[in-house]
Amino acid sequence: MSQSSKEKKKHIVLLWVENKPGVLSKIASLCRRRRYNIDSITAGTSHQPGITHITIVFLEQKVKIGQIVSQIDKLIEVISIEALAPKDVIDKELLLLIVRDKQVADRLLKMSRHDVNVRIINTVDHQPVLEIVGEGREIDHVIAELDMKQDVVKMVKSGLVALKI
Amino acid sequence: MIGADILIKSLLKEKVDVIFGYPGGVTIPLHDRLASYPQIRHILPRHEQGAALAADGYFRVTGQPGVCLTTSGPGATNLVTGIANAYMDSVGIVIITCQVATTVAGTDAFQEVDITGITQPITKQNYFVEDVKDLPRIVKEAFYLASTGRPGPVLIDLPVDVLKAEVSKFVYPKKVNLPGYQVPGKAEPRRINQAVKLINKSVRPVALVGHGVTISQASAAVKKFIEKAEIPVITTLLGMGAISDKHPLHFGMLGMHGMAYANYAVHNADLIIGIGLRFDDRITGNINEFAREANVIHLDIDPAEIGKNTVVDVPLLGDCKQVIGQLNSKIAKKSHREWVRQIHAWHDKTKLSKIKQEGRTQKSKHLLAADIVREIDQQTKGQATIVTDVGQNQMWAAQHFAYSQPGQLLSSGGLGAMGYSLPAAIGAKIAKPRADVWSLVGDGGIQMNIQELGTIMEYKLPIKIMLFNNGYLGMVRQWQELFFAKNYMATKLDNPDFVAIARAYKIEAHRVTTRAQARKMIKKAAASKKSILLEFMVGPEDNVLPMVPPGNTLKQTIVKRNK
Predict the structure, then answer these.
(1) Residue A78 forms contact with B (CB below 8 Å)
(2) The complex's ipTM?
(3) Which domains does chain A have, with CATH numbers?
(4) Helix/strand/coil (H, E, C) string of B74-108?
(5) B246/B370 same-domain check
(6) What CATH number did the domain enclosing B95 receive?
(7) Is there a contact between A75 and A16 (Cβ–Cβ < 8 Å)?
(8) Which residues contact B72 (CB under 8 A, 6 or more apart)?
């Protein structure tokens, strides 16, 4: 096996599942016992009643993704599952953060462009609260720009939600 | 009518004729109603694990889901080994665990345990019944899931208040609606064409036959397949019997204790056609060296098995019988005489009848397990249903009996659960009273479910129990000898008087120490219409050979012991 295929990268997997008790727990525990590394998982309502849409981002070797998809697909409640290339999805992630001061906020506001939207939504103890919405990769870039010790008081991330196009 | 009636009526719709059940606090309303339905026979094992494994045995000889029923808490947890066993070996069973009332569920009530949580990784699906109106649908789905596609265990957790709920009408659904569940049938034509190309051009092909062939009733199709293209066939432990051992193209079992010639054939093949198996580590040896020169065609009904353990050149997703049928109409009639002759040459050098003494340390006066198994084969004219335990007895039983029918060998393959033999034999005998059921078991394994002698006694089941007593947990001792410098830590057994125990259960029993006695007693057992236990005093340090030491490749199969 070549070095590149062993490298762990982010892979987006989209699922449509029956909205029944325990489905999310079944998927999560399957991934735990088969040692699949989940980077993020989000679940929510879809346009179809009774059907939940789930986005999972795996941090895994490319060769393992086929097996991961097959194993999850065996869960009876999983109606369909698909691993997708980034070009085939629209994805968004939300970052909420409290930053140290206005200078940091200004710096982040300057990063705003068509695929990342940065805005100040509040202040807490004179510290700006920011909402940053954008593609998963762009959010990763924003995070890479931040000095967590110097710039950030608190940060939370939503996990990726993606739509197949 | 109450929920319990709904359950029983649903079971009747599924043609259930036997329940292996053990009562407890929350099953009482159900057992109370069961008394009114004589169409269903209730068998009481002596431990809940016995119920699950009996249901397993029931499926393996009938192809219909076996049903077991227990109480909540400890009743449910005692099932776990049996459920895991069914899951690993693709055995369809339906498990009904009664549960504390919904009003107290989640409060650590008396005998409450989260059995749906516990069994989630070892069931194909499980259900907690919140409302009695869902019960018929759930039972319908449970049987459908347990018996279709890749079969497996399905558990229904049934709270006692749901069992007692008053119901006015019973309506059983005609169809299941499971949008996330499809059962593969035929393979894609493009894949069939790719497979046919590989088969037609192969020079040294081997067909590997697994449990899927038995489950899908594909034996006749596979036989046609191997005969048309003259392809040598080798089986896994659970594939034994799917193609008769007596077939001229059949070359035994492969793997850790497979035939050396079978392992050599697989190692040297240029094409492996895996049919209904999962390339488990016990058959592949070192996976990186497995069939290194071969293209691999893998036919299985479970997409997750294809490519899981080995690199596959042509995946064939589908039902064994249907897909082999597709191949049969397309493959060329062909001869592989040279290749078959080569395997015959390996066979002549390493055949079992020739090497059966090689596992001994020296000229021993003890009985040889191989001789006992061969004697059972002879005395039953190869027609016995053999139910093994796990360990050396299991491998000797697999090696030395010539299986000719699917479902003739019952064994705990994937899980390797000691204690399997007695309860699974009970399940098989109850399911098929006319089958001649022989339980082959070691002195360790029999003690893991020895209480089931009580079940055999109560229901007067004429099961022939062949106990191989070597005074050790033999397979572990063998590994300790070979890989841990004979450090026999915790494997020497201080055994009870098994003959006296059997007799206490009103089962005829004899201790056998000589070849002549063995012959006489096995003949007696074969003719007997009652249960009988024979305790064979076999060599304490006899080893199972051939053997592929763990981590080695199939070509490194050992056929001689270091004496």
Answers:
(1) yes
(2) 0.90
(3) 3-84 (3.30.70.260), 89-164 (3.30.70.1150)
(4) HHHHCCHHHHHHHHHCCCCEEEEEEECCCCCCCCC
(5) no
(6) 3.40.50.970
(7) no
(8) B24, B25, B26, B97, B98, B99, B100, B111, B112, B113, B115
Within 10 A of A39 (CB to CB), how many other CB atoms are there?
Answer: 17
pLDDT at position B292, please? 85
**B374 and B335 within one domain:** no
Residues of chain A with pLDDT under 50: 1
Domain extent at residue B473: 359-544
Same domain, B208 and B81: no
Put simply, whether A141 touches B (Cβ < 8 Å) is no
Q: Which of A138, A32, A36, A157 is closest to A86 using CA atoms?
A: A138
Q: Mean of the pLDDT values across residues B218-235?
A: 98
CB B370 within 8 A of CB B356: yes
Please name the member of B116, B145, B306 whose beta carbon is closest to the beta carbon of A76.
B145
Give the strand pairing for A116-124 and A127-134: antiparallel
B344 & B366 share domain: no
Task: Indicate if B160 and B284 belong to the same structural domain.
Answer: no
B137 touches chain A (CB under 8 A): no
Q: Does B90 touch chain A (CB under 8 A)?
A: no
3-state secondary structure B254-270: CCCCCCHHHHHHHHHCC
- What's phi and psi for A31, nearest 5 deg? -65, -35
Interchain proximity B304–A79, CB inside 8 Å: no
What are the tens digits of pLDDT across the range B384-397?
A: 999 999 999 999 99
**Strand ranges (E), B241-332:** 250-253, 271-275, 295-300, 314-317
Number of domains chain B is built from: 3
Token pair of B134, please? 């869902």
